[in-house]
Amino acid sequence: QTAIELNGLRKTYGGSGKSAPKEALKGIDLAIPAGSIFGLLGPNGAGKSTTINIMAGLVTKTSGQVRIWGFDQDVNPRQSRASIGVVPQELNMDPFFTPRAALEVQAGLYGVPRSERRTDEILARVGLLDKAEAYARTLSGGMRRRLLIAKALVHRPPVLVLDEPTAGVDIALRQMLWTYVRELNAAGTTIILTTHYLEEAQQMCDRIAIIDAGQVVACDATVNLLARL
Ligand code: ADP
Ligand code: ADP
C-alpha cells in the first residue's frame, strides 16, 4: 500500500501585485510506501516544508495530485486530512494553554468522541503527564516539541509527518525523539520527516528522497542511495 502519492505537484508562491512569482515546487512525483520511515532530504529552500504543508492541507497547491492513504485531497478532503498528522517546525503556541487543553481542543477539531480520547495516555507517551496542567509558556523547547507530537497523534492518523524534528535540538532530546519515532513506526505508523542533515536521514530512514530547487533529484532505499553518493 502507498501511504502518500504525489503526482506532478507544483507550487508557485506570489506573483500577484508587487512580488515576483516564486516557483517552489516544479513537478514533484513521489510514492511513499506504507510502513516506512521516509526522509525528505534537501538544502534550505529546496521545497521540503512546502511539500509537507501541502500534504497537511495548510498550503494550497498550484497543480498536481495528492493522495493520502488512498484518498485524493480534492475528492475526499475530510478523509485525506484525517489520515495525516503533522508536527510543525515552529514551537509557537498559546502561552496560557495547558497540554491537556491543547490535546482536548485538537481532539474536538478532529471530531474524536470523548469516549475515544486518550489524553492521559498520549501525554504519558511523550513524557508530559506531570506537565498536563502547566501553562505552555512555562514549557521548555523540548517539552513543546513533544507536545506538538502529542497533538499530531490525537486522531490516530496512519501517517505522521515531522518537519525538521531535531533542528536546534540537543543530542539527548534528539536521541529521545529518534527512539520515539522508531517505536511509533514499529507500532504501524508511517513516518515522513524532513531534514537537511544527511546523517539524520541515514540513521532514521529506510527510504530517502533528495529534493533540490523544487524537484526530486533522487529517490531510493537508503542503502542504495548512500552507495551512489
Ligand atoms: P525548505 O523547507 O526545503 O527549506 P521551503 O518549502 O520552505 O523549503 O521553501 C521553498 C521555496 O519557496 C524557497 O525559495 C522559499 O523562499 C519559498 N517560499 C516558501 N514559503 C513561501 C511563501 N509563503 N511565500 C513566498 N515564497 C515562499
Ligand atoms: P526537556 O523538555 O527535555 O527538559 P530542554 O528544555 O532541556 O528539554 O530542551 C531540550 C532541548 O530542546 C534544548 O537543549 C534545546 O536544544 C532544544 N530547544 C530548546 N528550545 C528550542 C527551540 N525554540 N527550538 C528548537 N529546539 C529547542
UniProtKB/TrEMBL annotation:
Signal peptide residues on this chain, from the entry's feature table: none
Which stretches make up the ABC transporter domain? Answer: 4-229
| Recorded GO MF terms | ATP binding; ATP hydrolysis activity
This protein's name: ATP-binding cassette domain-containing protein
Q: Does the keyword ATP-binding apply?
A: yes
Keywords on this record?
Answer: ATP-binding, Nucleotide-binding, Transport
Per the UniProt record, the source organism is Halovulum marinum
Q: From which lineage does this chain's organism come?
A: Bacteria, Pseudomonadati, Pseudomonadota, Alphaproteobacteria, Rhodobacterales
Q: Keyword tRNA-binding: yes or no?
A: no
